[in-house]
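Reviewers of the previous submission asked for a worked example of the structure-prediction workflow described in the proposal, so we include one complete record here. The input consisted solely of the amino acid sequence. No template or homolog information was supplied to the procedure at any stage.
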Amino acid sequence: MQQNSTGTEFILLGLTQDPERQKMVFVIIFIFYVGTLVGNLLIIVTIKSSRTLGSPMYFFLFYLSLADTCFSTSIAPRLIVDALSAKKIISYSECMTQVFALHFFGCMEVFVLILMAMDRYVAICKPLNYLTIMSQQVCVILIVLAWIGSFIHSMAQIILALRLHFCGPNLIDHYCCDLQPLLKLACMDTYVINLLLVTNSGAICLSTLVILMISYIVILHSLRNHSAEGRKKALSTCTSHVIVVVLTFGPCIFIYTRPPTTFPVDKMVEVVYTIVTPFLNPIIYTLRNGEVKNAMRKLWHVKITSESKR
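From that input alone, the workflow returned the following structure tokens.
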């Protein structure tokens, strides 16, 4: 391989080298990706079209679905195509682009989950001041800050990746480009870069999980003073959020908070993080949320009725 990193090509080994298993990977990932697109786009269209889903919670849910869609798209299409390819070649520029997109939209998802927890805290613990605190202007500012924070995080990852020099083997034992597998190919001492990676991505995942868990414990504690019906509704919403938080941060912490060692389950854990979680999020939020389901029914009823009248 050339010493000049910009002239480098990598070969992704993917999830498996077995031809029969690759066909299974193609079918499974294709189904998950289509399901992710349909589920999240359905939520996006429903929230944008419905007048009843105008609260800050659904404003943030819109951006969570958007982040999930883009996050999955940064990984799944390439994985689907590679499952049917004999040689999974990815250029240096494509690899760096994937690193940026993976961390940008993954970080965006993390920040939106924080904003959703903040929204639930204000709604349950300070209901009289809810509309004042979580005004439309405030929500827009918070989302803009989330985009900026995601961009800064992704730029930090790219700066670390661009510092790596490659001159030896170009086989990436993974199905996508990320800093951990790239560190193993670098012709240089990567101790400091790995330390910065763990400090950056690992610290974000771990500290965010702690903040979210504390916020939900406070929310649950405050529900003692609510009516039985209020408790039931709040618990249903918070349970959905907690499930999504666990699905997101469990694999994230496993991947980004440890030394650059390889475990047999690494790829499967990252599949859960990058493919399965974006697929499950819309299911969790729609199945456990009556308002979203009702809005979807009304939306499609109106569309079907308007089509039948033509």
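The chain has one domain: 5-309. We consider this example representative of the routine output the project will generate in years two and three.
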